[in-house]
Specification:
Layout: E1 4-8, H1 11-19, E2 24-26, H2 33-38, E3 46-50, E4 58-59, E5 64-68, H3 73-78, H4 86-90, H5 95-100, H6 103-106, H7 115-122, E6 126-131, E7 134-139, H8 140-145, E8 154-161, E9 169-175, E10 183-190, E11 193-194, E12 197-198, E13 202-206, E14 213-214, H9 216-222, H10 229-237, H11 253-269
Parallel strand pairs: 1-3, 2-3
Antiparallel strand pairs: 4-5, 5-8, 6-7, 6-8, 9-10, 10-13, 11-12, 13-14
Length: 272
């Protein structure tokens, strides 16, 4: 089946083309769309591209960081101001994939991939999109819950607040082939603290449900408490609550449920 490629000068034009054609997909780095085409996905008849430089911007001039949807993981790793995102960026594939894969595209990666998105969920990111209804900002949790219905919208940028301190944000990817393998589990935690107690804990999990999800029971176990052995044990004990992992070739749902508490304990304790 022939595929039409349309290139536009602005993100707005590309967004209009996407919203007008259900069989259109946006081509950023190509790690998802080209794979689908190579595997014979007949639902895609049009590929939309944009040369708009705004999609490749990085703004680190304030406490809130803005990253264009077209920014690659290699570029994230090259930015000193984005050091808190280096671990999740490094967890994406090998050098070739990191040179091509984009932050915006990772939002749509299905399990056992999408590891960078887990970090963004823990950081309470906002996703800026443009579609048939115009431009709007969507909390990342809301975006992930409806991402299967977002194919007609173009992601413009992702923004998040910098972690409050160097050790507030923590990330861990568990994979059988490191770093490029699909994840058994991915975990990220953003633990803001005041007077030695956790305030506003956010813990995100990957490969524990259809899309990256919050570990809300674990968050509640930490909230208002010091990060010590007792609170960490309490969070680890309820880490799997609300999760619905699947059986895959990488790991079974049973195994993921069994080990999630172990890895959350290690993450929160600062263990390798």
């Amino acid at each position: 089946m022939p595929v039409t490629v349309k290139t536009f000068a602005t993100a707005a034009e590309a967004a209009t083309a996407l919203s007008a054609d259900r069989a259109a997909r946006y081509l950023g780095g190509g790690t998802l769309v080209m794979r689908a085409l190579n595997e014979g996905d007949i639902s895609i008849s049009t590929v939309v591209r944009a040369t708009d430089r705004a999609l490749n911007r990085i703004d680190v001039s304030s406490a809130r960081v803005v990253i264009g949807a077209g920014v690659t993981f290699a570029r994230i790793l090259a930015e000193r101001e984005l050091a808190f995102l280096h671990a999740p960026a490094r967890a994406i594939g090998g050098p070739a994939v990191r040179n091509m894969g984009t932050v915006g595209g990772n939002l749509f990666a299905q399990n056992p991939f999408g590891d960078f998105t887990v970090a963004l969920l823990a950081l309470d990111a906002i996703v800026s999109v443009q579609g048939g209804l115009g431009a709007r900002d969507i909390p990342i949790e809301e975006f992930l819950q409806s991402r299967d219905r977002q194919s007609g919208a173009l992601v413009l940028a992702i923004s998040c607040q910098r972690p409050s301190s160097a050790d507030a944000f923590r990330y861990r990817k568990v994979a059988r082939i490191r770093p490029k393998g699909g994840s058994v589990i991915t975990l990220a935690a953003n633990l803001a603290a005041s007077s030695g107690r956790i305030t506003g804990a956010r813990i995100a999990l990957g490969s524990m449900g259809p899309a990256p999800m919050r570990a809300r029971a674990a968050e509640r176990a930490l909230e208002g408490r010091a990060l010590d052995a007792a609170s960490i044990a309490a969070a680890a004990a309820v880490a799997a609550e609300g999760a619905s992992p699947s059986d895959t070739a990488i790991a079974s749902a049973w195994y993921r449920r069994e080990v999630i508490g172990v890895h959350l304990r290690r993450l929160l304790s600062g263990q390798e």
